């Protein structure tokens, strides 16, 4: 039975939840396929996550391996293939709780970086899991800056082998997934040396464990890096190599080859390869970032509709916490952000698909823009969504702090997305470099890529809004965002130029501007997100109330961004103080409007109870019953030796006399 | 041997680290006592935290009980007493990793709420640990709003007993520490009923487990609430009561008594009791909030001085990440905040000591102000420090994400401080209520408490700064903070009045202003923190470079606050755009200045390696060696059954054919 406090929220939905779900999925047919995958996974007990919050790191790892192995069977049984329409829903249905994800990266890196001969040799046994691969790039002392990697691969002409070494402790490979305990092979990135000359970083296939008994190969030291904030199910590993010899054929040689005589040959264009790396940042947004935020919103908003606390009006029953303005102000902007980022993700996916087609046609013009967009949006979306999940967690008070709420796990996992695949600050500075370059080009009349043409356009000096409802006009707020982005980019470009002209070295000048460059890059991405949301709403069909509620969310997202960054808009007087008060008033009004549809808006994300795995967020809202039932299963409710050993002697005063 | 990259940071300290440590401790003698306590605790293997990051919740609980029992011996052995000068350092030296903390709350509540007879009966056996107490207030369905608690205590005249019940699941006690597995007794807060009439919430001593065999008493259901984001060592528990009868004497009756005939009698003033609750919020700041932030700063700043990444100047060695402006902008404001909050904590402690003396003299005039300050500062400091620890964690990249860095545990623990002892938003609204009241009083010329007299003073309309160095003048920035606080309080008061005058009900008007009321309360606390920091610096002795570096930190704290909230200062033109650019320039300049002393500034916090328990933060900076050594001890580097069960059949292709 559904908690009446939750049921009543659904009776008054102003739109069709099912239609909105279909919109998010990209059509009703996609919804059908997704649900079928979820049903198949969730009805299979091997994939259960029921006891997840009670398990140790070892238990989580073992379960992930079991699931990965079982998944092979399941896919065969269900007729799912890597190219089929179901494939993209599998990982999400498993909530990522599965091993061998790096095995896929291992295979992809061979497919992308390997010669045809290498692909023919390695891909078939890898596909059949006759070996398990990993991907060993990051070292203890080196992450984002790949040129700094210290592992060496020296070519030995005499034996036609590469000799791999970890010259010092900071060169130890550290973090690669599946490597701590599972992998038999890995792609190692190392500095290539031929005749004492360094040719830079290259990828090598190295076997690390026996295929017979899984013991470490000679010269190999490897293991698990130990406990982390999350990802307990993954055996992130370390790897040291001491005079490990591999055949010359094991250097992945699509782009660079070492001939038997030691000649080093470059071949082909690596541009498509760079593009592949770039797309990884976009591809992670959906499953690793948006899904967790949507789950967190679902949990926190459903809970806020059943949790009652204090009285809003004297004499009445205690109020739902969702009725408090402060609670709305915590949660509803996060809900709006989930939609905003869903739509910008759609936009980026389409843009990258187009980019891929262009690049296949050997047209590389879009590459700089795509690189800048993928860097900036990876950083902005992971940062924003991580903060949003934390807000959802805190907004649930004490119960949010229990692992049983599901929120701590969502938070500790999404947090990692700010670090992996490029640390966010470094990525934003890459976007900023592109923006400064484009700004300089635009200001001298040169052509610039489509996403930055706005840098060249002439804009009004002042926001034209006259009353608070004007701030519900997308043109008004989109232009305000655009104005701020232009101002931050142009003023930082000017500061850079001033510094250099005053004699500061270019690299010093750059460093002295980085705090402001980061702000400029964020403003650029924020502007594009708002613009895209507004344009998306414009194109929606007006039926079933969808466009109306999406318009409200778009307004909320935009106005929340202004309300939270008032200084950026007030700075040069583009928005006046009186206008800012209108923004605040419009923003606070919107909270009360969207609050009415808050539960239907999270229902539309269409998560099953099993996928949420939350005592607070289930569809029926029976929060307290579930917390109690789940807590009873905790291993902490088993007998503890602490009683006989410590408590009994203490209470019976039989400890050696104090 | 100390990592040379860290050693060089210490050679150029501009001040005496030892002198600063003594200043933080409140004198060299205090430093001596603290170090002696730390030495005694850390040299005792029972108190070791060495394997903490590898332990399960059960293992953590058992260790905490073992330590709590051992601590009794240790205190006796060392001659430490509850009133001695060493006492306050013990908990900190244990990093809070010890059981029976609620036993102290149990005893304190009896001391404060019990009659002399009850104190005489319960305190001696509790002191000797012949029983273990807990404190059962929070329920599944009720936290901060105490009037809403649902547990009932019905007086039965016939037997002269109270009959305690948990009428429904939301009334179950939930969260009390030490209750899940350890406690034999607890203080239960329940609605008192006599002859069918409810007299509100009262405290009752209830035995929940047998003193003989620790089995649950008849009618009692209790256990552990399961896994949490941290506090694995504490057995937070649940408790259901079914017709549990306790003698009439078990109602704590200093302030209210039920006579044998069922007459209900109030006696004495509860004001000193309210004051005790208020002081708890202040007392937690030091150990639960400031110490974790200081540890996080120590770890992140030392790591940033030894971690090298990318090149700042072409041709040079990779740069220390602490040399990047963006890294400085992440970490140094958190360091400044640690000092700012240390000094405001000193201020609050002194104020509350004075308040205590006044209240003992039956002068309750200070109570409203102290309540407002304790609520506001608890919320502002816990919020700020939690965010700061998270920034430190992220600033260490991947290694910050490893539990071995110590940062995840610091973060997941400090996060709870935003929720316990009053949820932060609710506390800020209590401060806001006080501020609005005082503002109304001040504007009609009535007297107001000292901390809010500024609301009545006449201030300049515009910031008088002319050049960027003017923003290093504490009068300039303190007045700017004051101006913003007054503006936010007065404008929200005006909005409230307008709403009420336009016919909106008072409680609705309040709810519609809460987002802005929260901002106003924060601005008030921020202003007082800046003012207090500036005044503290003013009074420091000028020797040994201490005042100079503290002045820089004070400036940084103040300017960072403006830089991060530009809109609040720009809104009414108090600070102009040109002045804001000066703030930014001064702020960024300061980063480079303080960076030079960053490592000595964290060294002054004087944490031992054992107390930091971090592979990244040790005094010698041997980061990579320690990560590797610690990882090898992880249980994930033991044999796993996953190989024989799943990996081997997969690799050997002996799984039932796909």
CATH superfamily of the largest domain in chain A: Butyryl-CoA Dehydrogenase, subunit A, domain 3
Helix fraction of chain A, binned, reads 40-55%
Poorly predicted ranges of chain A: none
Largest interface pair: A-B, 132 and 132 residues
Structural class of chain A: alpha+beta
Quaternary structure annotation = homodimer
CATH topology (fold) name of the largest domain in chain A: Butyryl-CoA Dehydrogenase, subunit A, domain 3
**Computed Rg of chain A:** 28 Å
Percent of sequence in beta strands of chain A: 5-15%
CATH architecture of the largest domain in chain A: Up-down Bundle
> Helix segment count of chain A?
22
Q: How is the biggest beta sheet of chain A arranged?
A: 6 strands, mixed
How would the global form of chain A be characterised?
globular
- Ends of chain A: how far apart? 57 Å
Q: Compute the average pLDDT of chain A.
A: 96
- In total, the number of strands of chain A is 11
Q: For this structure, what is the CATH class of the largest domain in chain A?
A: Mainly Alpha
Number of domains of chain A: 2
Describe the protein in words:
- 2 copies of one chain form a homodimer.
- Helices cover 54% and strands 9% of the residues of chain A.
- In chain A, a hairpin with a 4-residue loop joins strand 2 and strand 3.
- Chain A contains 22 helices and 11 strands.
- In chain A, strands 1, 2, 3, 5, 6 and 9 form a 6-stranded mixed sheet that branches.
- The first copy, chain A, has 2 domains: 1-9 and 271-628, Up-down Bundle (Butyryl-CoA Dehydrogenase, subunit A, domain 3); 116-267, Butyryl-CoA Dehydrogenase, subunit A, domain 2, CATH 2.40.110.10.
- The model of chain A has no long low-confidence stretch (mean pLDDT 96).
- The first copy, chain A, starts with a helix and ends in a 7-residue tail after the last helix.
- In chain A, helix 10 (367-395) runs antiparallel to helix 12, helix 13 crosses helix 14 and helix 16 (546-564) crosses helix 18.
- With 658 residues, the first copy, chain A, is an alpha+beta fold.
């Amino acid at each position: 039975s559904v908690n009446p406090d939750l049921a009543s929220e659904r009776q008054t939905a102003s739109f069709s939840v099912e239609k909105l779900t279909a919109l998010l999925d990209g059509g009703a047919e996609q919804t059908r396929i997704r649900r079928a995958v979820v049903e198949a996974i969730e009805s299979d007990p091997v994939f259960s996550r029921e006891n997840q919050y009670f398990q140790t790191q070892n238990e989580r790892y073992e379960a992930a391996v079991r699931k990965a192995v079982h998944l092979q069977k399941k896919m065969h049984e269900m007729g799912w293939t890597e190219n089929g329409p179901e494939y993209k829903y599998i990982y999400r249905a498993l909530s990522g709780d599965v091993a061998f994800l790096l095995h896929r990266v291992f295979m992809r890196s061979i497919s992308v970086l390997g010669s045809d001969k290498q692909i023919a040799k390695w891909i078939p046994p890898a596909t059949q899991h006759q070996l398990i691969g990993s991907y060993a790039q990051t070292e203890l002392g080196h992450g984002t800056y790949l040129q700094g990697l210290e592992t060496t691969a020296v070519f030995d002409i005499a034996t036609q082998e590469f000799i791999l070494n970890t010259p010092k402790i900071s060169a130890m490979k550290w973090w690669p997934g599946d490597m701590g305990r599972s992998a038999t092979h890995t792609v190692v990135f190392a500095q290539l040396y031929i005749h004492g000359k360094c040719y830079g970083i290259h990828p090598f296939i190295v076997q690390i464990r026996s295929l017979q008994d899984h013991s470490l190969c000679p010269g190999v030291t490897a293991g698990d890096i130990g406990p982390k904030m999350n990802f307990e199910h993954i055996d992130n590993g370390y790897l040291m190599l001491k005079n490990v010899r591999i055949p010359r054929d094991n250097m992945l040689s699509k782009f660079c080859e070492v001939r038997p005589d030691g000649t080093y040959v470059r071949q082909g264009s690596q541009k498509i390869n760079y593009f592949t790396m770039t797309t990884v940042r976009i591809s992670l947004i959906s499953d690793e970032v948006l899904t967790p935020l949507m789950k967190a919103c679902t949990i926190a908003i459903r809970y806020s509709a059943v949790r009652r606390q204090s009285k809003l009006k004297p004499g009445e029953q205690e109020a739902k916490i969702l009725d408090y303005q402060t609670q709305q102000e915590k949660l509803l902007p996060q809900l709006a952000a989930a939609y905003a980022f869903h739509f910008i993700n759609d936009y980026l996916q389409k843009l990258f698909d187009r980019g891929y087609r262009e690049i296949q046609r050997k047209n590389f013009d879009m590459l700089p823009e795509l690189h800048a967009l993928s860097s900036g949006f990876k950083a902005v979306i992971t940062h924003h969504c991580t903060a949003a999940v934390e807000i959802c967690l805190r907004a649930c008070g004490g119960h949010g702090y229990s692992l049983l709420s599901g929120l701590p796990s969502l938070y500790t996992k999404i947090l990692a997305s700010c670090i992996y695949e490029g640390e966010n600050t470094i990525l934003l500075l890459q976007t900023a470099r592109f923006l400064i370059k484009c700004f300089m080009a635009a200001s001298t009349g040169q052509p610039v890529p489509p996403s930055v043409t706005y840098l060249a356009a002439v804009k009004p000096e002042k926001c034209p809004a006259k009353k608070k409802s004007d701030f519900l006009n997308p043109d008004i707020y989109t232009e305000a965002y655009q104005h701020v982005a232009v101002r931050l980019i142009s003023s930082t470009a000017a500061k850079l130029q001033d510094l250099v002209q005053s004699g500061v070295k270019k690299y010093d000048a750059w460093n002295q501007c980085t705090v402001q460059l980061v702000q400029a890059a964020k403003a650029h991405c924020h502007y594009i997100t708002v613009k895209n949301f507004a344009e998306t709403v414009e194109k929606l069909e007006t039926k079933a109330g969808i466009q109306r509620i999406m318009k409200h969310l778009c307004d909320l997202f935009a106005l929340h961004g202004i309300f939270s960054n008032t200084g950026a808009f007030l700075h040069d007087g583009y928005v006046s103080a009186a206008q800012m008060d209108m923004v605040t008033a419009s923003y606070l009004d919107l909270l009360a409007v969207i609050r009415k549809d808050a539960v239907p808006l999270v229902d539309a994300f269409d998560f099953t109870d099993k996928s949420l795995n939350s005592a607070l967020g289930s569809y029926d809202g029976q929060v307290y019953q579930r917390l109690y039932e789940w807590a009873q299963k905790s291993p902490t409710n088993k007998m503890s030796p602490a009683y006989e050993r410590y408590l009994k002697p203490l209470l019976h005063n039989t400890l050696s006399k104090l």
